[in-house]
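User: Second chain of the day. Same drill as before.
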Amino acid sequence: MKIASLTRAIFLVSAVALLPATTAGLAAVDSRSGMQFGKLAAIYRLVKDNYVDQVDDDKLLKGAINGMLASLDPHSSYLDGSGLQRLETMIDGNYSGLGLSVQMVDGAVQVISPFRGSPAEKAGVKAGDYITHLDGVLYFERDLDEAVEKMRGQAGTTIRLTVYRPGRDEPFDVTVTRGVIDLEPVTWQLTNAVGVVTVNEFSRDVGRDVAGAIQDLRKQVAATGGLKGLVLDLRSNPGGSLDEAVALTDLFVSSGDIVSQRGRVASDNEFYRAETIFRGDIAKDLPLVVLIDAGSASASEIVAGALQDHRRAVIMGERSFGKGSVQSLIGLDRTSAIKLTTARYFTPSGHSVQEGGIEPDIRVPQLSDPDARVRSERAVRESDLRGHLINEISLDDKKLEADRKDDPRFAMSAEQLKAKGITDFQLHYAIETLRRADVLPVLAARRN
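Assistant: Same format as last time:
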């Protein structure tokens, strides 16, 4: 994606559209807000004339823009240089570094998720971790791009991360060796005649890649009775292209809406419908389970929400992140842009996932992770971010955490599971559910 090309709408992290900035629009803002802009100009002049050190104009301008956008919501921001490059990486993804998706939360660098198979994941970094120091240097209330640039570097070099993990009493150090991060958006495997398709992030051609994965899985078991079911694993997937989220959903849905986005002006509302990319249900003969967790955000929630509303899949795991907003990338020039929240998106039934997220049909804790329970209780979601958009139906998402009595199905410890050779309990539970019975009629009966 190039800022110079503003003709095609590309959507990222539940929608980032490329839109042109117009001088007429800027002039209109100026004419309506002359007094306020006069105050801003006066402060600029005071700083230039009286600050103890000489201040660069670019620094003051960027600071004013950042402050303006940061006052709106956590996802509106000014992008230039490395910030734009990071956005491009989400689509084309090939760089040297740790393989982490991070965000700034109240001045601290928080891990949204490590990419599957990345150096960070292999070193034990987990979703929800806070990175407090890089090579012993405190990174708090500093520019996120600065921290990202510090973590990137030549493959084979190392960096020491100081990590605070909710549930642990003390921070701890992790040394990670940088590698070449060639993102694999889709991976798949066959387990006991159940196909497991993992979508790591929504970059280009994810829909076609998943279609190819299902075809390959069918070929692998063609001589032994065929597939018993499919697991679509969207855990720790922070999002990506809305177009690809629609394409992936369209593989399994044959009619109706997939997602809608709605802003301030009704004429700008958009509805994305089934049968626009793929015809029919590629797996209509198979039951489908979708796995989500607190790291499943944006595009992942679009897919899970649509398949849940259409009763096409059983959603398992933990409540998702809850990011239901649309960002538009508005190019200012060839080297800079603003990412501005312009709409909310809604599932086919009209449900906004903003704040509340997607609640699984069957809540399955990750028992194989000894820290999972405490991390789940203290997980940071959209509703915890300062300045987040309010759900229009005034949903108190804390009520979603009610009724947490211990389930006898989930009583085993991580050590007991490890002794049985189970290293991913959520995936194990999903596969065993598909092997035991067709879960779709049971789900339909429960909802009717």
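The chain has three domains: 21-83, 94-182, 186-447.

User: Great, on to the next one.
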